[in-house]
Design brief:
The structure holds 2 protein chains of 2 kinds. Chain A is mainly beta. In chain A, the strands form 6 sheets. In chain A, strands 3-6-5-4-7-2-1-11-14-13 form a 10-stranded mixed beta sheet. Chain A has helices at about 1-30, 80, 270-275, 445-465; strands spanning about 35-45, 55-65, 70-75, 85-95, 100-110, 120-130, 135-145, 145-150, 155, 160-165, 175-185, 190-195, 200, 205-215, 220-225, 235-245, 250-260, 265, 290-295, 300-305, 305-310, 310-315, 320-325, 335-345, 350-355, 360-365, 375-380, 385-395, 400-405, 415-425, 430-440. The longest helix of chain A has about 30 residues, at about 1-30. In chain A, about 15% of the residues lie in helices and about 50% in strands. Helix content of chain B is about 35%, strand content about 10%. Chain B is an alpha+beta fold. In chain B, the strands form 4 sheets. Chain B has a 5-stranded mixed beta sheet, with helices on both faces. In chain B, strands 1-2 form a two-stranded antiparallel sheet. In chain B, β8 and β9 form a beta hairpin. In chain B, α5 (about 110-125) crosses α6 (about 135-145) and α7 (about 155-170) packs antiparallel against α8. Chain B starts with a helix and ends in a 35-residue tail after the last strand. The chains are: A mainly beta, B alpha+beta. The interface between A and B is medium-sized, with 23 and 26 residues.
């Protein structure tokens, strides 16, 4: 009898363990099991017009598994993941005209990588997707440094041809029932492209697909060799110093190192050809850059280390100001230029008071030059002396550190908040805030310092005049 | 600032007491007393006597006229300030590295020098040497941050003569000289397109004279026609073959549709279509004022003596006959 009780107890324990393990396995599948979701339709539009590549991926995801899914995974090949500057995802509700986009959080997935080093990103859905349900997602991402100039060196009279490497099939951890990829080139001149049937080329559009029933992580490498003469303007380093002065002015100083990142220039540069035949000579070079500045900007200067550069035009307006600058010489492939742009803004446009009494600076993070990629941006916000507890709110990840800088009439120094980011594209031109505490009493520090100096000087003078140190009376 | 004590006559006090606090007539216009006068005030005792004297002397001018004169004087002073500022801005502020001209649509700026120096500083290697005439030496060192061969110090006449000889020699000889000095870039200033008179062609006579003073194979009469330096069709062959001519006017005819009219010398150039064999144009500024050329590297193979190469980029070793110039570098 006892033997049977012991055996039944043992089986009970074993079945308990078995059940628990089953539970654990199913709970892990509850968070993210790649095999449960299926993508019904996927459409990818790749825009290769400028050197910054923008891709929009529209997915219709259906949950075929047994449990509801709370996030959707995206996969990128390792080369693309390294150059991914920005990724946004949104849930599409409604059709056609009534389409509304609800932004969703995207972050790198905690899971292990996909096969062959593919990087996974996970999109957290608003509501967990029930079994049998489907959701439409729109993912947009920006790739940088992904156009390879080929030939690597060109002369002045040659156009610039670049290579774009990608896959005809969309890399995904899920099975895709139907997918198409459309690539848009800036001009109709496409030298060659890998043919993966069915693929068509019509004027500026290359269409790959539709492909049916592709398994998860399927990848077919393609290369598109086409002409892209749009300016490959890359700012190697941008250091921007934003100085807040509570006397009513915000002074911004930006130091740029600009380089032409396309096919390198070889041979000589003939000015007569460049000036007389602009459509044939130097088509891949650029001369003008457009800098978008805030509306009420004043005291704008544009100079480099040997003096003022006179080739610039400033147009101020109500909603924005535009500064059109030309470097001292046109930039051909591999040529560099450095310059400094500085301007002042009235403080009431940028400094505000938050609900809990803290002051905050509202300023745009990225580079104001249109269509340029910045390899490394450093934003230094110099807060007035006497500011305490600085904190930053930035919509994307940045590296932050603190410094102190000493300027006029400073005793303890001004706290500086340094924000650094790499691989910055124009889409990063969103506003960021720097919060700090500032007691209004500290405003009096500077005037009191000056007043007391002069006061003591005059008192000393008075004392000296009224002193009589002569021996004779 | 003039003191009320001067304008109001009838005030018989001596100048050193013009700050009397007791005299109410002067009170309105005089301000802070100086310390010196304050001390002297302690010794003043003649306060009441001043008032009686002030009534006697009559006014020289009526008050309105004197105020009007004062106003005009102040106006004159103000206009003087305005005029001085204008004269300083217009006449005394020509930096000579940035040239301006007034065109129908405003001010036109010729910033070619800084354009060339900025290009040199960013787009050449740090160790590259630039050869130019000595006038631009300090500017190149400071703004382009590159090593020069001769600069404004002009302490080595033989070195300047070497550069002068190179500029006056034909292309191959000039290449040899510059190569021996490890020069990578040659810079010339050319004002023919815009009419800038202080360019290197106008300074060429000094290059010939200084070079000829040290190297006897450069003879000034070789470059003169009727005692004048010319670059038009009447120029001597030595002049038309010199490096300075070639570097200044390379592809210049293409700018004005085949005429090649030099605005400084006011004539069409002599040799219009030619190619450079030993130099390559790497940069010319916007108004053609500064032209930068690079020395072409030597070919690895030297073609045989019998074959005369048709390609413009190869070097031939011509056999040394008796009439060749003596090259001081061999």
């Amino acid at each position: 009898m006892e033997f049977f009780v012991a055996r039944s107890r043992l089986t009970l324990i074993f079945s308990l363990f078995f059940f628990l393990s089953l539970c654990f396995r199913s709970s892990s599948s509850l968070s993210s099991s790649p095999t449960d979701l299926k993508i019904l339709t996927a459409e990818r539009r790749i825009d290769l017009a400028s050197h910054i590549i923008r891709v929009v991926l529209t997915l219709k995801v259906q949950n075929d598994g047994a449990s509801s899914a709370s996030d959707v995974l995206l996969a990128f090949p390792p080369a693309q993941a390294k150059h991914l500057a920005l990724i946004h995802a949104a849930e599409v509700a409604g059709k056609k005209r009534k389409k509304t986009l609800h932004p969703l959080d995207v972050k790198t997935s905690n899971n292990a990588e996909g096969p062959n080093g593919a990087k996974l990103y996970s999109i957290s859905l608003r509501n967990p997707l029930s079994t049998g349900g489907s959701v439409s997602l729109e993912v947009s991402y920006v790739l940088t440094q992904s156009l390879e100039p080929f030939p690597v060196e060109i002369s002045q009279s040659e156009p610039q041809l670049v290579l774009y490497r990608d896959s005809a099939l969309i890399l995904s951890p899920y099975e895709i029932k139907q997918q198409t990829t459309v690539i848009r080139t800036p001009s109709t001149k496409v030298e060659s492209f890998t043919r993966v049937e069915p693929s068509t080329h019509l004027r500026t559009e290359l269409k790959y697909g539709p492909y049916e029933d592709q398994p998860a992580f399927s990848y077919t490498p393609i290369v598109v060799h086409f002409e892209n003469n749009n300016p490959f303007a890359v700012v190697e380093e941008l250091v921007r110093e934003i100085e807040i002065s509570h006397w009513g002015n915000l002074q911004v100083t930006e130091r740029y190192t600009l380089v032409h990142n396309g096919a390198r220039h070889k041979g000589g540069f003939s000015r007569v050809e460049y000036q007389s035949r602009p459509t044939y000579s130097g088509v891949a070079s650029f001369k003008n850059l457009l800098v978008k500045l805030p509306p009420r900007v004043h005291s704008v200067y544009y100079r480099d280390n040997i003096g003022n550069i006179s080739t610039s035009h400033l147009r101020t307006g109500y909603s924005k100001s535009e500064l059109e600058i030309e470097p001292r010489y046109p930039l051909l492939g591999g040529w560099k230029a450095t310059f400094v742009i500085g301007y002042g803004l009235p403080l009431e446009d940028v400094l505000f008071e938050s609900a809990d009494g803290k002051r905050y600076l509202n300023f745009s993070f990225g580079c104001p030059i249109a269509e340029t990629l910045v390899n490394k941006i450093t934003n230094k916000v110099v807060l007035p002396e006497g500011s305490k507890n600085p904190s930053v709110a930035v919509p994307f990840s940045v590296e932050q550190r603190a410094e102190t800088s000493y300027s006029y009439l400073d005793i303890v120094g001004r706290p500086v908040v340094v924000l650094e980011k790499e691989n910055v594209v124009p889409e990063h031109n969103s506003l960021f805030q720097v919060y700090y505490d500032f007691h209004p009493m500290f405003m009096l520090a500077e005037p009191l310092m000056l007043i007391s100096v002069f006061f003591f000087l005059f008192v000393a003078a008075l004392a000296y005049i009224h002193m009589d140190i002569s021996i004779r009376k | 600032m003039f003191y009320a004590g001067d304008a109001v006559p009838g005030n018989g006090v001596s100048p050193q007491n013009d700050v009397l606090k007791t005299d109410k007539k002067e009170d309105t216009l005089k301000e802070r007393p100086s310390r010196k006068n304050k001390k002297k005030e302690k010794e003043t005792i003649e306060k009441p006597s001043v008032k009686s004297k002030s009534e006697k002397k009559p006014l020289v001018l009526p008050v309105e006229a004197s105020f009007f004169a004062l106003f005009l004087t102040v106006l004159l002073g103000g206009f003087y300030v305005v005029h001085s500022v204008w004269a300083a801005a217009e006449a005394y502020s020509a930096p000579s590295i940035v040239l301006t001209s007034h065109s129908h649509d405003g001010l036109h700026v010729f910033d070619d020098f800084r354009e060339a120096y900025a290009w040199l500083s960013h787009n050449t290697e740090v160790d590259d040497k630039v050869a130019s005439w000595w006038d631009y030496g300090y500017q190149t060192t400071a703004m382009a941050n590159r090593t020069v061969i001769v600069d404004n110090n002009t302490w080595n006449n033989t070195h300047i003569a070497t550069v002068g000889t190179a500029m006056s020699s034909p292309e191959k000889a000039a290449w040899e000289i510059f190569n021996s000095l490890d020069v990578k870039y040659v810079l010339v200033v050319f004002g023919g397109l815009v009419g800038y008179p202080s360019d290197d062609i106008n300074k060429f006579l000094w290059m010939v004279r200084i070079g000829g003073g040290v190297f006897p194979h450069i003879k000034e009469p070789d470059y003169l026609r009727d005692g004048q330096y010319r670059i038009d069709s009447q120029a001597t062959p030595t002049m038309l073959n010199s490096l300075m001519y070639k570097l200044s006017y390379f592809r210049f005819v293409e700018t004005d549709g085949g005429k090649g009219y030099d605005r400084v010398r006011r004539t069409e150039i002599g040799k219009k279509h030619f190619k450079l064999t030993h130099f390559e144009e790497v940069f010319t500024t916007h108004h053609w004022m500064v032209r930068i050329y690079k020395l072409k590297p030597q070919k690895n193979r030297i073609r045989g003596k019998t074959k005369k190469s048709k390609s413009k980029t190869s070097f031939t070793t011509t056999p040394r006959s008796g009439t060749t110039k003596k090259n001081p570098w061999h």
